[in-house]
Design a protein that fits this description.
7-stranded antiparallel sheet; UCP028498; 32% helix; 5 helices
Length: 124
Amino acid sequence: MSRWRQEELEAIAKDENLYIAIPNPDGTMHKPTWIWIAQAGDDLYCRGYAGTNARWYQSAKREGKGHISVGGVEKEVHFEFPTDETTNEQVDEGYRQKYEGSPYLRPMVSHQARQATVWLVPAE
C-alpha cells in the first residue's frame, strides 16, 4: 500500500516543478532546489541530473530526510536509495511518461542519473 494519498499523487502528477529542501549539517534548511519527479506505481522518485555528484543528492545521502513541495503538496519525506534494475526501469518509464518530448529526458534515464535515484517516502 502506498503511503501517498491518491489526491496527493494526482496533484503531483500534474506538476513538473518539484522543490526539495534538505537540512544543512547545522539543522537549518537549505534553500529549495528544483528537480524533476517521476511516479512508479504509487511511489515517487527523483534523480540527480548530474548523477551522484549533484549537491542536493549528496545532501540527501548525508541527511536522509527533507521536505518537498510540488503540485500544492507540502510533505516531509525520508530518502531511500534503490539500486535494483527493476525499480530503475520503472522510474525510467515514469520519467518517459511525464517528460516525453523534453530534450532533458535522455540524461534523466541515463546510467549516470540512475545511480542517483531517490525514493521519496512520506514521513509518518
